[in-house]
Amino acid sequence: MLQAKIIESGFELKNSQQKLVLAKDKIELGELTVNEPGEYESEGIEIVYGQSAALVIWDKLQTVYVFGTDKPTSFEKSQFSPCDVVIFSQSSPSLTKTFFNETLEQYDPSVVIVSAKTNIEEVKPSFKTEPTDTAKLSDQTMPEEGRDFIVLT
Questions:
Q1: Quick check: 37 and 147 in contact, CB under 8 A?
Q2: CB neighbours of 43 closer than 8 A, spacing ≥ 6?
Q3: Cis peptide bond prior to 37, omega within 30° of 0
Q4: Which residues, other chains included, contact 140 with Cβ-Cβ below 8 Å and sequence gap of 6+?
Q5: What is the pLDDT of residues 61-74, one digit of tens each?
Q6: Which residues on adjacent β-strands are paired with residue 48?
Q7: Hey, what domains does the chain have and what are their CATH numbers?
Q8: Residue ranges of the alpha helices (H) in the chain?
Q9: Mean pLDDT of the chain, nearest integer
């Protein structure tokens, strides 16, 4: 099971042994910092870094971290979809309804995570639950149908 929470620089994902940080347009895993397109693997965690998003494969979950507002490349569309979780970077000042909906259509996630620091006014109706400080993610708890929307504080 992975636990997601907000930290000063972005999002932190961790399990009982490891910690990964999603900060702006980079991914930090121990000594490894990923901010260039390519495929990486460290400590059993796979990272596929694209032009505007990265795929993190860890604990049987496929998590797409969207750090850019460009349209996904054909590589990103084919490799990252469908996924279990989409996390929108908090470095974007706001999420527009068009970008948000197109991203969900491209990646077809079961769970969507945003930061309370991001302006989500245009997409707020999607988030029906109260903001929370952590999200627990595992392949057993992914919704069978529909989508869960989580705002982390």
A1: no
A2: 18, 29, 30
A3: no
A4: none
A5: 999 999 999 889 99
A6: 39, 55
A7: 2-152 (3.60.15.10)
A8: 74-80, 97-107
A9: 95
Helix, coil or strand: residue 5: strand
Residues 6+ away with beta carbon under 8 Å from 144? none
Angle 133-80-150 from CA coordinates, rounded to 5°: 20
Find all residues with CB under 8 Å of 114, minimum gap 6, and list them: 87, 88, 90, 95, 120, 127, 149, 150, 151, 152
Alpha-carbon distance 82 to 62, whole Å? 9
Q: Please tell me what DSSP assigns to residue 71.
A: P
The residues near 77 (Cβ < 8 Å, ≥ 6 apart) are 106
What pTM was computed for the model? Answer: 0.97
Q: What are phi and psi of 34, to 5 degrees?
A: -110, 120
Tell me how far apart the alpha carbons of residues 142 and 139 are, in angstroms, rounded to a whole number: 6
- Strand-pair partners of 3: 14, 136
